[in-house]
Design goal:
Length: 151
């Protein structure tokens, strides 16, 4: 490089597919998530909640405590297929709490998303969607290791 010449970072021209993350966060304990290339639709959302319902059932048997998932107003959360499964999930010890529209401040996972998007992956380049999904950018800020389900 010659004196006075500007340094540059070469980027690939390829733009990857959208990687969607559905997160389940337990304050100061665990961060579990489902990953999906493209967006979450009802079928993939049901798979994630079935996974969580099985974990909730194990927890309920061990501790007698219910697991509560806070839901925002994403359309998938209110689909007919989801409504058909609510009783099955409740019987496993999984309950749901819906928050009102335009109130992300009451959803305790929002600061986690902010940290992830604006501080941990912002400005970083990833080889492809799989590199991003690999989670090497996530610092371990929880006691137990993170679990994930890739769809």
């Amino acid at each position: 490089m010659k004196k006075g010449e500007q340094k540059g970072i070469n980027q690939t021209k390829k733009r990857g597919k959208r990687l969607s993350i559905l997160g389940i966060w337990k304050d100061k304990d665990s961060f579990q998530y489902g990953l999906k290339l493209g967006g979450f639709k009802t079928k993939s959302y049901l798979e994630i909640i079935d996974w969580q319902a099985n974990k909730a059932e194990e927890n309920f048997i061990k501790t007698g405590q219910l697991t509560v998932i806070v839901l925002d107003n994403y359309a998938v959360h209110k689909s007919q297929e989801v409504k058909k499964n609510l009783e099955k999930w409740r019987n496993k010890g999984l309950e749901f709490f819906g928050i009102s529209a335009y109130s992300p401040e009451v959803n305790l996972i929002e600061p986690e998303w902010h940290q992830l998007k604006n501080h941990e992956i912002a400005g970083r380049m990833f080889e492809d969607e799989y590199d991003l999904a690999g989670g090497s950018h996530r610092r371990n800020r929880v006691k137990e290791s993170k679990e994930s389900l890739c769809l």
